[in-house]
Amino acid sequence: MRRLAAIAIAGWALAGAGAAAAAPPLQMGVQDDPLFVREPRTYNNQVSRLISREDAYSAVSKLSVRVVRINLIWSHVAGVKRSHPWDWSYYDGAVDAALAHGVEPQLTLTGPAPGWATGNGKPGVVRPSPALFAEFVSAAATRYAGRVKRYAIWNEPNWPSWLAPKSSEPSLYRGLYRAAYDAIERVDPSAEVLIGELAPMGPPEAAMPPLRFLRSLTCSDTKWRRAGSCPALLADGFAHHPYALRWAPEYRGPSGDDVTIGSLGRLERALRALAARKALATDAGTPLPLYLTEFGYHANSRTIDERRRAIYVRRAYEIAARDPHVRQLVWYQLAAPPPKRKKQWDTSLLTFAGQPRQTYLALVQWVADAVKTGRVARARLP
Q1: Could you tell me if 148 and 189 are in contact, meaning their C-beta atoms sit under 8 angstroms apart?
Q2: 67-120 pLDDT tens trace
């Protein structure tokens, strides 16, 4: 945010080339909204069947987790009509529980939007109103001021199931982000705001490739020079989801516009270029640091067995820990969803019953070693 920018610029200048070497240790995070938020809509009202929130926090304490990421869904707190009061009850409990366990709640303020705030009048993600989104963001920042230190704006806006229509995703997101940033700045200028939250790869996936999205968002050509008229954007960091999923962590993605854990350098070069022309930067005018706010490998995969998954995860975390631009790495998700015949997303470290998988045990060991050597930040005591 706009906090003593001149001092920050001076500090950066004094740091010079040694800034990267002085980067703080990697901050570990986790996301599993069914476990940590426990809304009644979770898994079709099967909250009572999940492991307890206390058991979830016990499991992540062994991973030196400093942050729990939470998707704060606009339509989940909004009333059927705009005039209805907000319902924060489940998110209040999640924030309270995180702080009680010495963990920082990090909120991604996102859709789907209520029907009264979308372009087609239906609850969902079609052309949500920036002005109405700002009202929601302002209400959230007001409620959690002093308790939540960092917000991110929208989840995977380059994926059409989160923001639509696909052809308009960058311009829609620009409007939503600017409205949200200004709203948080007015309510809680000490809070940090992250931009991005992008999915890692385009075709054959449905998402727009992240670098193509970022070029459109910032009116840039393929060499990151100005190509159009876009307002300058400020942020405290860039949030990204660098999944590799079916490949080794060194996999760079099917195109040069993709950004996986193995091709973070592509995004870092883009952020340096954007900061240099003042298109997207911190208050101090410096390139945005990276917050890897979703990452994981599928459990029960047909292509990567559990033994190999444990190996890949350690390698991926080592890549992040060695990158001086990366501040945070968030694993998604902790425990498996309830058993179903239909295939479900499952990047869990624990079974549905809470039993540790091999990957969890390997990650616990890697984290312990990384904490000892200063590559990973030590968890705070509650």
Answers
A1: no
A2: 999 999 999 999 999 999 999 999 999 999 999 999 999 999 999 999 999 999
Is the residue at 9 inside a domain? no
The pair phi, psi for residue 111, each rounded to 5°, is -80, -175
pLDDT confidence bin for 5, thresholds 50/70/90: very low
CATH assignment of the domain containing 111: 3.20.20.80
Half-sphere exposure for 282 (CA within 13 Å, toward CB): 19
- The DSSP secondary-structure symbol of 307 reads H
Query: Could you tell me the residue range of the domain that residue 156 belongs to?
Result: 23-372
**Token digits of residue 9:** 């610029």
Q: What pLDDT digit, counting tens, does each position of 207-247 carry?
A: 999 999 999 999 999 999 999 999 999 999 999 999 999 99
Query: Does 57 reside within a domain?
Result: yes
Tell whether 30 is covered by a domain: yes
Buried b (16+ CB within 10 A) or exposed e, 46-65: eeeebbebeebbebbebbbb
Facing residues of 110 across strands?
Answer: 73
289 and 325 Cβ atoms separated by less than 8 Å: yes
> Which residues are within 8 A (CB) of 266 and not within 5 positions of it... i.e. 6 or more apart?
211, 252, 256, 258, 259
Looking at the 3D structure of the chain, how many domains does it have?
A: 1
Spatial distance between the Cα atoms of 267 and 122, rounded to a whole number of angstroms: 35
Closest Cα to residue 155, out of 75, 81, 268?
Answer: 75
The answer to the question of residue 337 being in a domain is: yes
What is the pLDDT of the chain when averaged over all its residues? 93
| DSSP assignment of 210-235 | HHHHHHHHTTB-TTS-B-S----EE-
Backbone angles phi, psi at 168, to 5 degrees: -105, 5
User: Is 348:334 a contact under the CB 8 Å cutoff?
Assistant: yes
